[in-house]
Design goal:
By secondary structure, the protein is an alpha/beta fold. The chain has helices spanning 2-25, 44-59, 70-73, 79-96, 112-123, 128-132, 135-143, 152-155, 157-168, 180-197, 238-246, 258-270, 274-288, 294-319, 323-352, and strands spanning 30-36, 64-68, 104-107, 170-175, 205-208.
């Protein structure tokens, strides 16, 4: 009789342990996750659209996890090119205000085994036709590649993004409007996996950030690294900034257009004080009344941008003075990322009955 009780107790213990594992598997591990592609020097548009929202959330007490997406970057860049920008983009983020004491920053390839394994396993759950319907991928194939010549890694970009998010069991992912479709792929894959194999992945939430359309200073399209003449880079000196803004397209007196609205977003987004923002508002009100003030507006914009970049570049120089600092930041981040990834992938293997 006692032996039977012991067996029942052992059975209950094992069932409770299994239940505990499943509950733990469904818990969010990371409050906020975002990624950056190291493909070139950042522009003020990158700061306003991608970095500023993270800093704002950090100020509200959120501890973000930021990964440098070097595996994503090689979908359309050579690995050697990507490698040279890794440390630079991390230094940029820290100098802009991402605090390594509150945030964790890691290199995606530091958990390459886990990322690629989960990407392969998740790819079983989505069809090629479904991936080809992802709007961002369709645009990429239309604008810079063709299905018959595009590399296969480009097709798996949304699946790899899902692997990054689900390995971390991230609760919230800040995305702009153009990335919403990728998040839907992530949520779809998490639900399909959970339905087929068991409740492993908590469903990540979309944290939609305000989409800022920062246009090129010259010509068509958005401000981009690929059009240097129409972009203000965080590495630009004061003379270059003045030259680019002087040549920027604005609007005729009394007229508001996308070009001018984009410049206003830059001015107010980079302004350090309320008085600077008030100054911008006042000059734009005068413009709306038909006064010829675009020359004055460009002077104000130039001063605001130059002051912002001077402060940023000074902080960045201080950060990069010790070559080992960025490496230590990435190593600390990798510890957390590796722990989350190994634990998550172990649960995935268990429920899929892969491996010993």
């Amino acid at each position: 009789m006692p032996k039977r009780i012991d067996k029942n107790k052992k059975k209950c213990y094992n069932e409770l342990r299994t239940l505990k594992k499943e509950v733990n598997a469904m818990q969010y591990k990371v409050e906020l996750l975002t990624g950056i592609r190291p493909t070139g020097d950042l522009t003020v548009a990158n700061y306003l659209g991608a970095v500023a929202p993270i800093i704002e959330l950090q100020a509200q007490g959120v501890s973000p996890v930021v990964f440098v997406a070097d595996l994503h970057a090689i979908t359309d860049n050579e690995p050697a090119t990507v490698r040279q920008y890794i440390y630079r983009v991390v230094a940029d983020y820290i100098a802009l205000g991402v605090d390594p004491q509150k945030a964790r920053i890691y290199l995606q390839s530091d958990i390459a085994g886990e990322v690629t394994t989960l990407t392969a396993l998740l790819a079983r759950l989505v069809s090629v036709a479904e991936l080809l319907r992802v709007p961002t991928l369709k645009d990429k194939l239309k604008n810079s590649a063709r299905p018959e010549t595009a590399n296969a890694l480009l097709l798996l970009y949304p699946v790899m993004m899902a692997a990054d998010i689900l390995l971390n069991r991230a609760k919230k992912v800040p995305v702009g409007e153009d990335q919403l479709a990728h998040m839907e792929v992530t949520r779809l894959l998490a639900r399909r996996f959970n339905k087929r194999y068991g409740e492993i992945f908590p469903i990540p939430q979309v944290l939609q950030v305000k989409s800022l359309r920062i246009l090129s200073l010259r010509g068509r399209g958005k401000m981009s690294k690929t059009n240097p003449g129409g972009a203000i880079f965080l590495t630009d000196d004061a003379k270059t900034v003045a030259s680019k803004i002087k040549a920027a397209e604005t609007a005729f007196e009394g007229v508001m257009n996308e070009k001018l609205e984009s410049l206003i977003l830059i001015a107010k987004g980079l302004a350090k004080t309320g008085s600077e923002r008030d100054e911008v508002d006042a000059i734009i009100e005068a413009h709306k009344k038909g006064k010829p003030v675009m020359g004055q507006f460009k002077q104000i914009l130039t001063r605001i941008v130059q002051n912002f970049l001077e402060e940023f570049q000074s902080k960045r120089a201080e950060i990069t003075r010790d070559p080992s600092y960025i490496q230590s930041v990435l190593e600390e981040g990798a510890k957390v990322a590796r722990e989350n990834a190994i634990e998550t992938l172990a649960e995935v293997r268990r429920v899929m009955q892969i491996g010993p």
